[in-house]
């Protein structure tokens, strides 16, 4: 009985993760045209990640594949700096000098 329940929980978590990947991002233009306005180099995600890429923290880490709350997130290959802006790695490095 416990195995059936655990399998059901894992299967539903996998479905949420797949849904998250397929429909999570809108361009900042799309987000800005509705009621969601994101900063430069950000996208609005209806299924946000719990893992935030930050300046100075470039080591890939395991991240749970579950949906977080809807919010603006940095686009791919951009990092959150101390001011809350999404910048390139080169910009991160320049800020730390």
Structure description:
With 97 residues, the chain is of the alpha+beta class. The protein has a domain at 2-51 and 59-75. It has 3 helices and 5 strands. The strands form 2 sheets. The chain has a 3-stranded antiparallel beta sheet with strand order 1-2-3. It has a two-stranded antiparallel sheet with strand order 4-5. A hairpin with a 5-residue loop joins strand 4 and strand 5.
What is the average per-residue confidence, as pLDDT, rounded to a whole number? 74
Q: Please compute the radius of gyration using only Cα atoms.
A: 16 Å
**Basic shape:** flat
- Backbone structural class: alpha+beta
Largest sheet: 3 strands, antiparallel
How many strand elements?
5
The span between the termini is: 58 Å
Helix content: 25-40%
- Low-pLDDT residue intervals, each spanning 5 or more residues: 3-33
Instruction: Give the H and E element order.
Output: HEHEEEEH
Strand order of the largest sheet: 1-2-3
In terms of DSSP E residues, the strand content is 5-15%
Number of helices: 3
InterPro entries: Ser_inhib-like_sf, SerProtInhib-TIL_Domain, TIL_dom
Keywords: Disulfide bond, Protease inhibitor, Serine protease inhibitor, Signal
Domain TIL: 38-92
Organism: Pristionchus mayeri
